[in-house]
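So, could you explain the following?
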Amino acid sequence: MKPIPDDAPPELARLAELLRDVCLAADGPPLAAIAERAGVPKSTLHHALGGERLPNMETVLGLVAACQDPAVEAVVRQGERMHAAVLWREAYRAVNAHRPSPSGTDEAPRELAVANRLIEGYAARAQTNSAAGVDGVVRLREDRLAAEAALDAAVERLGQATAAVAVARAALRAASAAEHEATAAGAGAPDPDRARNES
């Protein structure tokens, strides 16, 4: 694995380090096998471990789950996935804090779609009594956590877009006021063409 870039946000670096530790602790499977188990392309796994870009929440939870030993207690496995979700949320906020607000108008629908997909999956499993047994309860908690984090991300991005709209509206009002002032000043001034004709 290549070193994590020095200029990566600390929160993103921590997430990448956690994912690296998880993969190394899996004791055996090559990265290609881990990617296949997690249901993600190998390139996505390399980007997630590289700390160069933020993977989505589903990728993070899928990678952690793919590397976990099923013999370990379910509560411990859940704790590891919850920790990964917390680090993802911190990394998301850090990465998006440096983006200009107007970009939020492009990405909010995508992030909201991800949140809706996670919520629908969580609701479907909750309604089909899939919480039977410890593993079922743990899975439902993970589904809820992922859905909450994804929805928080969408709300945050929508908030940035709303702020950008407010800034644009204020700029439009200022420009409109300047136009009115210029129009009023022009209406009070003599018309140079008319003055020429009268002379």
User: Anything to note?
Assistant: Residues 100-187 form one domain. The chain has two domains: 1-98, 100-187.
